[in-house]
């Protein structure tokens, strides 16, 4: 079972961002003090901290509606800066897609990930997919 989770992390990390609740695709919870300090030393904790940083930097566009979802491919460099972000699956709303991309760019560099070894960083965060799907927006 552990091998399956590690293998999944190598391929894709999926986050679902909702009304100030972040569900990370790795089981377990990050300690609240870890989230508050914005530091982490495990992939699970780092995913939650990273998702929180993105959410804090997101501004909802006026045209956003419930059910919108954009899937983004993200590449980070070893110094934890953003190398690339691209839309893998559009929400169909360019403003919503751009707002998610801008939140990621604004949150970079992701120094919260400095607690990870280069090996863990490469396996879990160098290339990953983010599903951005806020649930608090109006119909």
Short recap of the structure:
Helix content is 37%, strand content 21%. It has helices at residues 2-11, 32-37, 43-56, 94-107, 118-124; strands spanning 15-18, 21-24, 70-76, 82-89, 127-132. With 139 residues, the chain is α+β, with helices and mostly antiparallel strands.
Write the layout of secondary structure elements.
Blueprint: H1 2-11, E1 15-18, E2 21-24, H2 32-37, H3 43-56, E3 70-76, E4 82-89, H4 94-107, H5 118-124, E5 127-132
Antiparallel strand pairs: 1-2, 3-4, 3-5
Count of strand segments: 5
Task: Name the CATH class.
Answer: Alpha Beta
Name the structural class.
alpha+beta
The whole-number mean of residue pLDDT values reads 76
What fraction of residues sit in β-strands? 15-25%
Task: Kindly state the percentage of residues in helix.
Answer: 25-40%
Tally of domains: 1
Description:
This protein has 139 residues and is of the alpha+beta class. The chain has a single domain (13-132), classed as Fusion Protein Consisting Of Minor Coat Protein, Glycine Rich Linker, Tola, And A His Tag, Chain: A, Domain 2 (2-Layer Sandwich), CATH 3.30.1150. It is 37% helix and 21% strand. It contains five helices and five strands. It has helices at residues 2-11, 32-37, 43-56, 94-107, 118-124; strands spanning 15-18, 21-24, 70-76, 82-89, 127-132. The strands form two sheets. A three-stranded antiparallel β-sheet has the order 4-3-5. Strands 1-2 form a two-stranded antiparallel ribbon. Strand 1 (15-18) and strand 2 (21-24) form a beta hairpin.
């Amino acid at each position: 079972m552990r091998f399956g989770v590690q293998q999944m992390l190598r391929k894709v990390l999926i986050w679902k961002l909702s009304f100030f609740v972040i569900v990370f695709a790795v089981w377990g919870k990050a300690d609240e003090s870890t989230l508050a300090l914005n530091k982490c030393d495990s992939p699970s904790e780092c995913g939650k901290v990273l998702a929180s940083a993105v959410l804090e930097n997101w501004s909802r566009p006026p045209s956003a509606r419930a059910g919108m979802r954009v899937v983004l491919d993200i590449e980070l460099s070893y110094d934890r800066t953003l190398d690339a972000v691209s839309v893998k699956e559009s929400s169909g709303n360019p403003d919503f897609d751009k707002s998610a991309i801008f939140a990621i760019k604004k949150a970079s560099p992701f120094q919260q990930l400095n607690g990870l070894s280069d090996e863990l960083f490469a396996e879990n965060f160098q290339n990953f997919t983010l599903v951005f799907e806020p649930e608090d927006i109006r119909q």
